[in-house]
Amino acid sequence: MHKFMALMKNEYIKILKKTSSKVFLILMFLGVLFIALEAMPSRSYEIAPVKNSTSTTVNRHLDLRNKLENEKPPYYQEKIDLLKDISLYNLYEGTWQEQAILNIVNTDFSADDDFPVDMVKKIKEFITTDDWQGYFQLALKEQKLSAGIKWKYKFCIDKSIPPDDTSWRVNIINNVQRVLDSSEKNNELPSVQKDNLALWTYQLENDIAINLSDYRTGNYLTSFYRGNRWSMWIGYSFLIHAVTILLIIFAGSSVANEYSQGTIKFLLVNPVKRWKILLSKYCTIISIGVFLTAIVFFICGIIASICDSNGALKAASLTVKDAQVHQSSAFFFVLKTWALNSLTMLVVVTFTFTLSSFTRRSAAAITLSLVFLLLGASLSAFLAATGSDWGRFLLFSNLDIQSIADGNPLFYGQTVGFAVFVIIEHMAVFLITAFDAFNKKEV
What we know:
mainly alpha; 2 domains; 21 helices
């Protein structure tokens, strides 16, 4: 082990003492900083609840008014007058004020019922004074409400959450309301809706504004704060490619330069087996990659934290299965995302190292590896789009482990186990080829 560590130390010295290596390192970090700062959003923002324009609201109410005039249910004229009040108050669709009036308009009265004049008067007073709590309490006590609206009114009162607030809570509350109303109509909810309901309820109960799992799946239904530190930190993981390119240069030169510069003879004079020499070179390259990726990871984390104005919001990674919610820390989720995205770097660098050992030409190894990196994923995507099922056996078709685990593979029926098998198989071929070439070739 002592001799092996000495070999690795020697490799570190060889790589880092070169002026070209220092220049490449400086350029890489400058490039990372520049791209990270350029990709930084101008501000952290949230998605406010969508309010339809007044014209859209008026058109919808005109349709309801025409329906009342045609069907002429009991007290239809009073209901039409209430619809006119919505326009008079200039209420947007989806606000509690509009819903308060529509709750009366949509109530089915019989000819024997009295029109609730006093209730309408109170509702108008609540609208004028913007007293949503007063109206919610009145509605829960005296109105027939759907299951979703009843839950929403109770929750907002209990938590003192204004129903027209632009916070993440109101957006989730509205989603829960729609699901509960749907369950009341259909009796049985699909499993997806049950999972969503469990997830949203968990977020509200635990005050979790940001569910990072939504960013991975591209589901922004409840991810209202996209410009937060965690989502930016995840997005910055593409900068691993900068480290990959630098390692390709190092790996492509590691073995080939020993032959081109004639230093391989001095290296083999040592009483150390060839496979140990090659393994020390490989471990050195990989360890440099781990170290550089860690530095870039923390640099991006610092930049993301600086530009995050929503830092007080609680974030976590939430997953749900069979209506059971599982939570993991935001940092662990980001770390796992970066680690999985580094898999491509490991594979490409191993491929470069193999070419360097096999061809003894650094230029050829570096060029072919860059082509491999740039075109591999595109080729796999093309084969998937054209229905070429054999493409599932290609290396780049299996590198996105997370998407496969989430049920979004390039090819139908791909599993994590199959992807891991393909990756291990290719890595074994690369390394066996590299060690065989290095052991058999004459100096």
